[in-house]
Specification:
The chain is mostly helical. It has one domain (2-12, 57-256). Helix content is 72%, strand content 0%. The protein has 11 helices and no strands. The chain has helices at 2-18, 22-41, 59-90, 93-98, 104-132, 145-165, 172-185, 200-203, 207-219, 226-233, 235-256. The longest helix is centred in the N-terminal third of the chain and has 32 residues, at 59-90. It starts with a helix and ends with a helix.
Amino acid sequence: MKRLARSWRVCLRHLYMWRQHAGASLAGNVAEPLLYLLILGFGMGEMMDRSALPEGMNYRLFYGSGLIASVAMMSASFENLFGAFTRMMGQRTYEAMIATPISLSEVLVGDAMYAAIKASLASLAVPVVLVVVGEPVSPMILLGLPATVILAFFFGSAALVVMAHSPDYGWFNYYITLVLTPMFLFSGVFFPLEIFGPYAEAARIVPLSIGVEIQRSLVLGQVPPMQSIILTLTLLPGLSWLFLRLARRKLQQRLIG
């Protein structure tokens, strides 16, 4: 518990520093999904065949429900790529923290917690925008907040591994282009996974697909698939733990030797 408390202190430190820019950050989190919904939902959505979508959904609601999970992924990833790298190399915050009783592992868990909180706040803006544009969002979407936090923590932890191995900001483009972007495009955000045919079941264990299925079900007021719930409670936390250990091992070499 003491280790978790120290990690929470790290998270609180980051939230305290972020408070000065919270307004601009949250405004951007509302504007971005609104633009996507206007362009894709009201534009391309008018050309979509609703028979290909789940019953009771138009394309705006279909895409918007997937956007909840993808915003969590992108927000947590970018925070622990660019933000954490700046704290490590530019501001030397990591070195200052590990000079105290706080360990490197606790710093990394705190960073992942901070990214998860920020990303979850960003994701909450999406259903708000959906309601504003008149889409029937079920109140059950609030039950998806724990799943959003777990998903964001996972992607924040994965980003820390990339950050730990990157010599400069330019290296993040490999991860963004080769991992995050394909996941964003092929995890059911833009079109149903059934399009993949026999590969649909394999696509459902992709981390972002897990989050998309949970949020899409809750938007409709339905219970999410049991497979997605189990994977959220087992696979994502397990991989998060592994990624944090890998990040700690690399940063131990970089910062301490």
